[in-house]
Write a structure and sequence with these properties.
Cobalt-precorrin-4 Transmethylase, domain 1; four-stranded parallel β-sheet; alpha/beta
Length: 285
């Protein structure tokens, strides 16, 4: 089977940096008694998290689960309140927050200090968004038009966006907010350009192939966005975590497949999938 891989896919700089930091800490830890924790999954990829767990990285969801040792702040960041609690415990804190996520946090803080009601466009349950919410008092998260009632009337609104969202989504939500009541609207573009390039590359490819595969965790926001965008232009789009999830029956009758992957999908997952796909005979059952 012919397979075309999207020009832009796989690990982004922020994820690559977080994994590199984790691996260095775990190598340094060898032979020592101190535990190494990640406050929440370091990235949204089960395969990578399991590989790091085998090397000694313990993933916890609450600060209260940590008593001592080294704590890695994952790529999605953490709220200031969580950082403060960790400092009180006297643990060693290593910050692997993506620089773009850190930028959103700083912008939210500045907007709040300048008297704006901070509005975050994105998924309120995503760890990046929760961390940004923690940086601005009483911030409001808007996921879609049904959330617009949360906005106060005639207020100074300072708007940022979850980094991995699409331009299309950001602009649509800005338009919806702008049709409402406000005294001032300040918008900061906090979208990740690398995520945008991956989205554009994926959409371009999905239009050229008979079947499209988007590889990555089902929990990964940027991977879900890739799948959502590709599905709009190619109904034969499938979001899979790895080769083991593939139903081979969907391949029969297809000659050309496209493959892209989220920013938290390891290279070995992509390579294995592509190699197996290229070796697959679509003409026999």
């Amino acid at each position: 089977m012919k397979v075309i891989v999207a020009e832009k896919c796989g690990f982004c700089h922020g994820v690559r940096n977080a994994i590199s930091i984790a691996e260095k800490i775990l190598v340094y830890k060898e032979g020592r008694e101190n535990d190494v924790y990640s406050l929440g999954p370091i990235i949204h990829n089960k395969d990578m998290v399991e590989r790091l767990a085998e090397s000694g990285l313990k993933t916890v969801n609450k600060v209260e689960e940590i008593q001592s040792g080294t704590v890695l702040i994952r790529s999605h960041g953490a709220a200031p309140e969580q950082i403060a609690k960790l400092k009180e415990k006297g643990v060693n804190i290593v910050d692997a927050t993506c620089v773009l996520v850190k930028r959103v946090q700083h912008i939210a803080e500045e907007l709040a200090r300048d008297g704006y009601k901070v509005v975050i466009i994105g998924d309120q349950n995503h760890p990046e968004v929760r961390a940004v919410v923690g940086c601005a008092r009483d911030a409001i998260v808007i996921a879609d038009e049904s959330d617009l009632h949360k906005l106060p009337e005639n207020a100074k609104l300072g708007i940022v966006c979850q980094t991995t969202q699409s331009r299309e989504y950001f602009s649509r939500m800005l338009g919806a907010i702008a049709r409402g009541s406000f005294s001032e609207l300040k918008v900061i573009n906090t979208l990740c350009e690398e995520a945008i390039k991956r989205q554009e590359s994926a959409v371009q490819l999905c239009k050229q192939v008979g079947i499209m595969f988007v590889l990555g965790s089902l929990e990964s926001a940027n991977t879900r966005k890739l799948a959502e965008l590709c599905k709009k232009y190619n109904s034969e789009t499938f979001h899979l975590q790895n080769w083991n999830e593939l139903d081979k029956n969907m391949l029969f009758g297809k000659n050309v497949a496209g493959v892209t992957a989220g920013a938290s999908t390891p290279e070995w997952i992509i390579d294995e999938f592509v190699e197996n796909l290229e070796a697959f005979d679509t003409g026999s059952r």
